[in-house]
Amino acid sequence: MLTVAAETVRYLVRVYEWSGLYVPVVHARHVKDLIQEPGPYILGITAECRTLFTAPSDALVVDLDRNFVLTSSPPTAWSAKQRSKLISRMTESLNGDIAPSGVPQHLRSAYGGGKLIPAGQIIVMRGEVESVQDPGWWNQDDVMKVMDHA
Prior knowledge:
5 helices, DENN_C, DENN_Domain_GEFs, three-stranded mixed β-sheet, cDENN domain-containing protein, cDENN_dom
């Protein structure tokens, strides 16, 4: 799922000629180094590696396991005119084969009672983010080294 999500994001930003670092699944031993890279990047980081790093303040973190987006600058809401323009352009780009009529039937039928309810949220964090620290006896690096050789 991580690679599919990373590939989708990469495909969507390809329009803007993405030239940043792209690693769809980052190995634990490289997380700390890659997070500190200057410039834009798309990194697929597994849940097991969450405690290995602190995301930079300007990062956009999409947590697929917890279903939320963490950002310091949330997107602005689109006006009705902007939404209409986007829908029109997307419909045109699909040669009119797909009419914008809401959630597709095949997705609606996949949910009980036809209810498609988004469970995600966008969390806006400004300034320092408080996080739970690992206990003194826990050494993530040593654990990952053992797991690498298991």
